From TrEMBL:
Stored Gene3D superfamilies: FAD/NAD(P)-binding domain, Succinate dehydrogenase/fumarate reductase flavoprotein, catalytic domain
Cofactor dependence: FAD
Entry protein name: Tricarballylate dehydrogenase
Organism: Hydrogenophaga electricum
UniProt domain FAD-dependent oxidoreductase 2 FAD-binding: residue ranges: 4-433
Key words of the record: FAD, Flavoprotein, Oxidoreductase
Source domain of life: Bacteria
Amino acid sequence: MDPDVLVIGGGNAALCAALMAREAGATVLLLEAAPRAWRGGNSAHTRNLRCMHDAPQDVLVEAYPEEEFWQDLLKVTGGLTDEALARLVIRHSSSCRPWMRRHGVHFQPPLSGALHVARTNAFFMGGGKALVNAYFRSAEALGVQVRYETPVERLEIADGRFVAAHLKDGERIAAKTCVLAAGGFESNRDWLREAWGQNERGEWPSDNFLIRGTAFNQGVLLRHLLEDHGAERIGDPTQAHMVAIDARAPLYDGGICTRIDCVSLGVVVNRDGERFYDEGEDFWPKRYAIWGRLVAQQPGQIGYSIIDAKAIGRFMPPVFPGVKADTLPELAHKLGLPVDSFMRTLDSYNAACRVGTFDHTALDDCHTEGLAPAKTHWARPIDTAPFYGYALKPGVTFTYLGLKTGDTAAVRFGGAASPNLFVAGEMMAGNVLGKGYTAGVGMSIGTAFGRIAGANAARAARQQPAQPLATLIATEQGALHAAA
């Protein structure tokens, strides 16, 4: 039988949508392009959810009020965000965890290497893979039908209304409503090349990008909706959650363990041995996501993070050990960097350091003077052997080009909201993230809009109008109270 709600995708947003729709009484079919062993998309690589809270809550310490969350998001996006939708996500993040727990998700206090986000982020017990598995177990127990290795090639849409999905093998699946949660296009190498083009050095920067997550986010339906159906778009195709990761990482699915987290404790140079940005601009969880783009703008799309023995033990070590040397010239030689320019850079940096009270957990007073670019915090001379170097490449997590939406999660065509086609997760994250990133906010967006999309898809299947989040949550809480 044709389902009430068809969910396309298999990550956090898709699963939240499927669960919400099923809880509302709809029949649900979820299509995941990946094999079962690779299910979950980028969500399988996540660790936490950024959460607003006005007082300590179980695994969250102190408080993280709405306005501070908003200001953090405003800073990293440079204002390229829809404030109404951003605040919707922020407010939802304060109340979603009880629902997540009901579907088998467990939380834990942050590990020692992540204490700097203990106040702002709730960590999943077992990480994103455990979250994805819990949601799939709950969905299947509730009667959601799941099909793996089922990529959708195109949609049948009439006057902004979803009619059916057409699979790659030619099968047609009709449904009363549909939720799109199939991710961005970061795994599509041709589209990345098209978006980034050629730089002034004649390089194709995207050829040197690594993909931190799934190989299955090809952007097929995103391009289809934008180009074939004229869906309203949001975002810049070159903007993405892009992180500096170990250059030795695999092309796909390297995940969090390949991220290099010692940047703020040392200096970063390009292949010419020159610094190019302030490594101590702000706390690492607020700035780590700019470094992939910074490295992408350097010659050869490569950089090198340099630290000394004083930094060891103060950051989460990556999966691969760094290149080690007893002297700085030896380190430059091992990394293949020009020794003379490298030493000029390091000598200038060391001489410019004004060391006060070093504290890597606070915005301390250790800074440089008379140096461009400056290092505004955590500036200490790199002078204590052994020395370590990590080669960096841009690691793309997900792209920000997506479908424009509003507080009901409906896809928009020609200024009008679709009555039965909804979007969640990376396919619409650009509404909130015009650029930049702060740790855990992708899961906050996916959870909020996945739940909105699923609930409204179930309503549309009953020919009821879509509702904004506040109304949906109030209805849900009322039902829970009545059941109790």
